[in-house]
């Protein structure tokens, strides 16, 4: 009888050890699609309409960006946006507002240079939520990698009027110079005025994917073209890698 009890205890122990290991492994497999749609719109209504169109057109990830509003108003909008993205099983990333990201249980948060650091933000989020960070230089990328971000948004590729404060324009040469030196498996996403004609050349620099706002908002059908050019897959990419 004692032996059976001991065997049972060992089996239970191994079972929970296995579950713990599976959970740990799963946390290291963040889903990071190759195409990110950054929302545009002058009002919550416009943003919601654009999110609906993006999801209907096949967007796998939407980054909710709505500047110069209170956190209360942003939260209200985010609560409506996640209803749409959840329906389409589209990932939702919250720009800047990490507290909102946790409250609505979004897939993650994207942080700008002037936002709270990824290290501090990580302490406030759920373990399964991802963190992306904006970079303009090699040093920016290295600093973000040191803080264990899940992806880096590198730009601007060219001038864009969707942001009021732009860093130096990088272009293909800037991307190539940084990616040739940057030694990392962390996905680097190109951003800033990118259109479908740029994709082939951008991918050759070592950039893994792109975040697009204006080009997609002009024509949501372009999402299909972007996905084809990026060879985007509906299969979940492993953390810090693209398939």
Order of strands in the sheet with most strands: 1-2-3-4-5-6-7-8
User: What's the count of strands?
Assistant: 8
Q: Which fold name fills CATH's third level, the topology of the largest domain?
A: TIM Barrel
Q: Structural class, from secondary structure content?
A: alpha/beta
Sheet-strand content, in percent, reads 5-15%
Radius of gyration: 20 Å
- Low-pLDDT regions: 12-29, 234-243
How many distinct helices?
Answer: 10
Span of the ends, CA to CA: 52 Å
* Biggest sheet character: 8 strands, parallel, barrel
Silhouette: globular
The helix content is 40-55%
Describe the structure.
The protein has ten helices and eight strands. The protein has an eight-stranded parallel beta barrel, surrounded by six helices. The chain has two domains: 1-30; 31-230, Alpha-Beta Barrel (TIM Barrel). With 243 residues, the chain is α/β, with parallel strands linked by helices.
Summed up, what is this model?
This protein has ten helices and eight strands.
Furnish the topology, listing elements before pairings.
Layout: H1 2-27, E1 35-38, H2 44-56, E2 61-64, H3 71-88, E3 91-95, H4 98-104, E4 108-111, H5 118-124, E5 130-135, H6 138-146, E6 151-154, H7 171-181, E7 188-191, H8 199-204, E8 209-212, H9 214-218, H10 222-230
Parallel strand pairs: 1-2, 1-8, 2-3, 3-4, 4-5, 5-6, 6-7, 7-8
Helix pairs in contact: 2-3, 3-4
List keywords for this structure.
single chain; 243 residues; alpha/beta; 2 domains; 10 helices; 46% helix; 14% strand
């Amino acid at each position: 009888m004692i032996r059976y009890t001991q065997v049972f205890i060992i089996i239970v122990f191994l079972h929970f050890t296995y579950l713990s290991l599976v959970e740990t492994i799963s946390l290291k497999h963040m889903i990071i699609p190759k195409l990110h749609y950054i929302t545009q719109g002058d009002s919550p209504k416009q943003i919601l309409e654009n999110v609906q169109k993006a999801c209907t057109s096949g967007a796998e990830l939407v980054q909710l960006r709505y500047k110069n509003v209170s956190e209360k108003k942003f939260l209200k909008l985010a609560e409506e946006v996640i209803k749409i993205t959840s329906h389409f099983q589209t990932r939702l990333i919250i720009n800047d507002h990490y507290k909102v990201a946790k409250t609505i249980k979004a897939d993650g948060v994207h942080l700008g240079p002037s936002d709270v650091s990824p290290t501090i933000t990580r302490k406030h989020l759920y373990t399964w939520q991802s963190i992306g960070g904006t970079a303009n230089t090699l040093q920016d990328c290295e600093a973000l990698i040191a803080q264990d971000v899940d992806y880096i948004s590198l730009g601007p590729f060219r001038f864009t009027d969707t942001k009021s404060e732009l860093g130096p324009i990088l272009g293909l040469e800037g991307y190539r110079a940084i990616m040739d030196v940057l030694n990392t498996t962390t996905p680097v996403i190109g951003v800033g005025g990118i259109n479908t004609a740029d994709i082939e050349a951008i991918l050759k620099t070592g950039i893994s994917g792109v975040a697009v706002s204006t080009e997609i908002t002009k024509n949501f059908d372009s999402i299909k073209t972007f996905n084809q050019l990026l060879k985007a897959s509906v299969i979940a990419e492993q953390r810090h890698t693209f398939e």
